[in-house]
Amino acid sequence: MSILPIVSDGKIRFFKLGKPLRVKANITLAMAPHLMIREYTAGDEEALVNIWNEFFRKDPLTLKVLERKVLLDPNFDKSGLKIAEYNGEIVGFLIGIVRQYPLFYHGLDDENGWITAIAVRPMFSGTDVADRLIMEAFKFFREKKRRYVWFSPYTPNYFFPGVDPERYGELLALLVKHGFEKMYEALSMDVQLYPDYSLPEWVVEAEKRLKEDGVEIRPLETRYIYPLLKFLRENFHADWYRHTLELLQGGCEKDQIFVAVKHGDVVGYCQYFHSEEYDWHRPGTHFGPFGVRKDMRGKGIGSVLMAKCLQSMRSRGFHNAFLLWTDRETAKFYSRFGFKITRSFYIMRKSL
Fold it and tell me: Quick one: 207 and 264 in the same domain?
C-alpha cells in the first residue's frame, strides 16, 4: 500500500489512503522524500546497531555480536542484508540468509530461507519502509529458489527463536500482513539460583540408583570427548553437535559440560555458557542444550544432569540460569527445578 508524502507547514507528513500517519519525529522539507532499498556495503555496521537498539529496545545489540552473528557467519551474503535509505540516511534493515554451506550432517536446507531480523527507526513506523524491505527480501529468496521463508530459527546464528508478540507486536503484524503464519511457539525460561539452590534430596537418591544401574553423571573429561560427539551425531540435530564442538574448541571449562556415561558410552549431556560475543564459550548463565538418548529416558538421567549442571553454575557464583528455547511440554520438566516462563516467541513461516 502506497505512502504519500505531503508538504504541509514546511514539513513533510505521510498519508495512507487519505489518512495521516503519525510519525514520531519531524521530517523537514529539506529531507526530500527519497527511499531506496540497497544491499549492505562495508561501513553500514554502526548504523545498523543503532537502528537495532532503537527498534529492539528491550534486546540491545553490540557491534561485536553483529560481527560474530552476521558478518562472520559462513552463509552471509551481502545481497541478503537489505538496507533502507531515506535521503541518504540508513533508516532500516533486514537480514536475509540462505545456506551456502551445509550445517554438518544436516545439509543445505534447500527449501528454506530465513529472516533473522527486521528493524526500522521508530520515526518511520507506519510508513512503508518495512514493507519495502520485506518485499525486496522475498525477491532475494525467490532468486535463491527458496520455497519457505522463516522468522527466525536460523542456526547457528539466530537472534531470537521467533517474534515476541508481547514486546514486538508491530513486527508480528508486519509478518502476518505479508503472509507469514505461526508454526509453533518457543518459550524462554529462567530460574533463580541465589541464594537457596542446592541439589534436591530426590536427585541425590536418583543418582544413587543410576550408579547401581551402571550410569555415572560427571563433568566431561578428555576421554569422553569423542563419545560425546558421537552421541550427538547419532541422536540430535547437527546444530547441537556444532554448538558443543565450538564450545570445546573455544577452550571452555570441562565442568561446563556434564555427561551421563554407561559402559563407556555417553547417553546424555547438558552444558552451559556465557553470552553472544566472541567469548561466549566461557562459563555463564545460558543453560543448554540438554538431551538424553531415547532408550535411556524415563530413568532420571535428565533430572540428575540438570541438577548437577545448575549446582556447578551456582558454585561459580551465578545468581540465575536461563534457557532461550523450549516447548510447553518440556517446560513442565524444567519447572520441577524452579524454572519459570519469562518470554514467548512465535516461529513464523511464509510459503513463497
Answer: yes
Residue 11 lies in a domain: no
Sheet order of strands, 11-16 included: 4-8, 11-16, 19-21
Note down the domain range covering 176. 34-187
Q: Are 21 and 12 in contact (CB under 8 A)?
A: no
CATH number at residue 158: 3.40.630.30
DSSP SS3 for 177: helix
The number of beta carbons lying within 10 Å of the beta carbon of residue 299 is 18
pLDDT tens per residue, range 151-171: 999 999 999 999 999 999 999
- The edge-to-edge listing of strands for the beta sheet with 340-351 is 35-39, 81-86, 89-97, 112-120, 148-151, 340-351, 181-192, 320-326, 286-292, 265-273, 257-262, 215-219
Cell, residue 321: 540460569
Shared-domain flag, residues 114 and 84 = yes
Q: Show the CA angle centred on residue 313, arms to residues 269 and 307, nearest 5°.
A: 50
**Model pLDDT, residue 33:** 62
How big, in percent rounded to 5, are the helix, strand and coil portions of the chain? Answer: 35, 30, 35
pLDDT digits (tens, 9 = 90+) for 124-151: 988 999 999 999 999 999 999 999 999 9
Q: What pLDDT, on the 0 to 100 scale, is given for residue 236?
A: 98
Average pLDDT for 260-272: 98
Total structural domains within the chain: 2
Please check whether residue 146 lies inside any domain of the structure: yes
**Final residue in a domain of this structure, among 187, 205, 229:** 187
Average pLDDT of the chain is 92
What is the model's pLDDT at position 34?
A: 87
Contact 279/252 with Cβ under 8 angstroms? no
Instruction: Give the model confidence (pLDDT) of 318-352 as tens digits.
Output: 999 999 999 999 999 999 999 999 999 999 999 99
**Shared-domain flag, residues 236 and 310:** yes
pLDDT of residue 151: 98
